Structure formats: C-alpha cells, structure tokens
Predict the structure.
Amino acid sequence: MIGLTGAFASEVGRRYRANFDVAHLDLDPLLAVVADGMGDTDGSALAGRTTVDAFVEGIRSARGKIGPGTIRDAVAAAQDQVAEIGRHAVGLAGCTLTALLAGEEDALWVVQLGDSRVYRFRDDLLELLTVDHTMAWLGVAHGLYPLDSPQAEAARYHLTRYVGHAARPEPDVLSVVSAPGDVYLLCSDGVADQVPYPRIREILRLHIEPSAMAERVLAAADVAGGQDNATAIVLRVPF
C-alpha cells in the first residue's frame, strides 16, 4: 500500500512490574501485530513474544500469498509453540493475538484471537472491526447482564479464545477494503478498557502523524488510571 504511514507505542502503566504486551510493525508490506500476555508471569511474557515471532515468521514465509489458510497456519504455529511453553512450570502461558496485514490490492486482513482490538476511523465514524472473545462480550450482547454490572466486570477477564488455550481455538479472519484517508488503531485492552470511545475518535480524527496519535492514545490510558500495560499501533492510508 503505497504511502501508508504508521507507528506504535507501548508502556507499562502503573499496575504491573513489566510490560507483557508485544507489538510488531512492518509497513511494506503491512504487517501489524499486537499480543497481550495473560497475567504477569514468565509464561505470559514468553507467550506474547513467541506468538508474535511465530505469526510474523509464518506470514513472511508465505511471500505475499496471503489468505485465510496462510493466516490460520501462522496462528496454528503460534499455538504449537505456546503449548510447548505451557508444559513447563513458568506460570500461565497464554496471550491475545490481533493483527492487520496487507492482502491483494487495497484489501486488508484482520486477524483476531482474544480481546485486543482493531478500530477503523473513516468519514468521521469510528468503528470496531473486531469482537472481544470474552464471556463479558457474550453476556452483554445477549442481554444476560448490563454492561456496567459486577457480572460483566468479572466476565471481562474470562477469555473464550486465546493463544495457549487447550482447545487451540481458531482466529476470526476478516477481509476489509481500505479507503483513502482511513486511520486504523490496533490496541491492547489496556487502551480499550480505559480510553472511552469518544476520546479515541477525537484522537484519530486529528491531522497529526501516527506516532503523535499513538502517544496521545497512551497518554489517555494513563490519565484514565494506567491500570494495565497499554499498546497502540496507528496506521494511516494516504488520500
């Protein structure tokens, strides 16, 4: 995608001893990845790093022939390697995996496993392109409990799909077509859970560089409490 610009930023926040988020960004061809380790153990750190490395290697080895099969194979390789980590006594080995990568012409592939997110800002509308794989998402969507209820809060931490899950769940794979002026945000839940929708929209509609947008997103997460590791990748399609 000629002229695509992007940047990422990540910070520890105030709660954890280290940053268990992992991000990767290539712009040509586009390969943007965010993984968020589950918990604060060595297994969490290893799962995130291993997942991103395995997924990136799988996509790169396809040499531009990217499709649902290629993507699922790359996720399966990550599942295999994280399962091996989980066999050792290093704490829970699991993480989310969210990615945005180039397809043919103006097409993009969205990949989702867990509760990190991909947002798209287009024509002054901010849309969420991914679904959270959590019991909270299912419960609220089906009217089992209100969004602001204690039940939803507790269910927020119950992931139904992630890398390292014993059932090796498959990712959501979605094809979207980019348009001139699109802005995309990939973020961990340290952003999504803390920064309100109106604030994200306000930042992504600014006429500033993606690096400045990413820094503002993290600053907003810090202002909101900084209760989690926070990672943001911002991408802009040229007009």
In short: The chain has one domain: 5-236. The first strand starts at residue 5 and ends at 11. The mean pLDDT is 95. Strands lie at 5-11, 21-27, 30-36, 97-102, 107-113, 117-122, 125-128, 172-177, 183-187, 230-236.
